[in-house]
Each structure stands twice: as C-alpha cells, then as structure tokens.
Write a structure and sequence with these properties.
Two copies of one chain form a homodimer.
Chain A: H1 3-32, H2 51-70, H3 84-99, E1 113-115, E2 122-125, H4 126-151, H5 158-162, E3 168-169
Antiparallel strand pairs in A: 1-2
Chain lengths: 170, 170
C-alpha cells in the first residue's frame, strides 16, 4: 500500500469534513446568536492550542506530511488567520496543494530520509515518519478541533468525523 | 509499506503511551486528593463517550483493526471496566493481543474484503478500511481520551501523546 493512499486522498476528505464542521458551527452560532469567530479562540485547557491553531496545525500536518514524503516544496503559511473566512481559505488552500500531489510523487517515500526542523541532527525514515508522526499528528489536531466544537455545543457526530467511506456491495 | 507497519507496532506504542497518561492522571488525582476513578466518567460533552469508553474504543479499534486485516480472531471484551485497575488490565490485554499479531499475518491485507457488523451488506477493501476507518478511528479515541485528561488538569504534553520516535542520526 503506497504512502500516498494512506495520506493524500484521505487528508483531502478529512479537511473537507472539517469544512462541513465549520458550516455546522456557523449554523449553531447563528441559532444561539453569538459571533462565530469566538469559537476560533475556544480551547479545552488553558495551555492547549485554541481551535484556530488546531486547524492551522491540521493543515500544516497534511501539507508538510505530503511535501516531505514526496519531496515537493510546501507552500508557506504565516499562520495569521483570525476570522472564519480566513481559516476556511487556509483549509481550501491546503486541499488545493494536496490535490497537486500525485501518487507517483510518493514512489520510494517509505525509504526517504526525512529531516525535521525541530529535530536537529536527526532523521526519520519515511515509513516511520508516516506511522509515528504524520498520521498520529494529523488526527490529533483534527480530533481536538472536533472536540472543541463538540464541547461548545456544535451538533457533530462520529460520521461527521469519518466522512464518506468507499463501501462496496457484499 | 505493509499494513502491519502502520498499525501493530504503532498501536502497541500508543497504548503504552496511554498507560503513562493514566500514571500521570493517578499522580494528579493523588496531589489534588480526589478519587482517580472519577476521571473514567469525565467527558467533554454530555452526549459524548466518557474517558472509560474512549479507552475501551481505542482498545477495540486496535484489536479489531489488527484482527480483521490479518484474518485472526479478536479476543472478546464485554466492556465492563469500571475502575482504574480494570481499564489498565484492558489495555494490557490489548497490547498482548497485538503482540501476537505478526507481520506475515498481514500479507495481502490491503486486498482483503472486510465485513463490518454495523455496515450490513457492505464491504471495505483492506486498504480503504485502514485509511478511512482504522487509523482515523484509533487516533480519534486516543486523542479524545488525551483531551479529557488535559481538560481535567492532567499534566500532559504533545510528546506524551506521540511517545518515542525511531530517530536516526543525520
């Protein structure tokens, strides 16, 4: 199974799921008559990132994961989003980058040696980078964003998290 | 990259991480003088599963994921855990099962057709089951358990979540 399959199409789908969560959050804010941007600063613990940073981190996780595994350059994002429209644009831009990553770019990705800016002098084998960092990290930020919205009363359920499945008839 | 690599050794490590989170939670309960079992019923939203069920679900996610992909029979767990000692035993039992799953059991797992009890009449290809269900679901329950503990003041950080990494010298 190629590293592309476990990441790119799945991350696109997950970010599209996030777009739908944001839609539901917007409807919730409207019904409860509060400014939806308030949710961007919501967090589950005072020393944990708020929603806006969880979404930025999920976007970064997907972007850097795909870029490092395929040897492409990741687009730069200065993390300046402060409004609902800005964070939606960030997600859309990330999806666009992921769509530019092709299956063939990931050939040999499992054997690639990956350098990380926060781990100076160290490298991770592509397959370890995928299993130990990219996947747990991506789903960490997605789930924390989901949990912040759930904690704030947004009407989300597990299928909003998982999204559509490639089901086949038995 | 085999489906074994993305799941079994990584899930063992993540469940060992959870064992350490529980140790930190126990120390926190002792310092704050509250009964640690109280945390098992903590949740982030009234209609979301509490900690005990998040951990049971993470254990199930790992167990069923590995069992279905390798064609092994999963051990049965009646989900009756109500104490700290019982949930620790559940985690240890799950790790033991995962350790019995060998790399060679996963040969051809990506092409296996997987039936799920809650999706009658439908099947998922092994590779789709891994990318669309096993991984997002496992990390969903792990992260939610982590978030519940963080929300309740347990001193955890991102490295407690990720655990050790297979770093190589550059």
């Amino acid at each position: 199974m190629s590293l592309y399959e476990t990441t790119v199409p799945q991350f696109i789908k997950m970010l599209q799921n996030v777009e739908r969560w944001l839609g539901k959050a917007e409807a919730h804010a409207k019904a409860k008559k509060f400014e939806v941007d308030t949710l961007l600063q919501a967090r589950l613990a005072p020393d944990q990132y708020p929603l806006v940073r969880q979404i930025q981190s999920a976007c970064d996780g997907a972007k850097f994961g795909a870029a490092r595994l395929s040897g492409k350059e990741a687009p730069r994002n200065p993390d300046t989003e402060q409004t609902w429209a800005e964070i939606q644009k960030r997600i859309a831009g990330t999806i666009e980058f992921l769509q530019s990553c092709k299956s063939e770019d990931f050939e040999g990705a499992d054997k690639r040696l990956i350098a990380l800016p926060f781990l100076e002098g160290k490298l991770l084998l592509g397959s370890d980078y995928l299993a130990e960092m990219v996947l747990p990290n991506m789903y960490f930020h997605l789930t924390t964003a989901y949990a912040i919205l759930r904690h704030n009363g947004v009407d989300l359920g597990k299928m909003d998290y998982l999204g559509s499945l490639k089901l086949r008839d038995a």
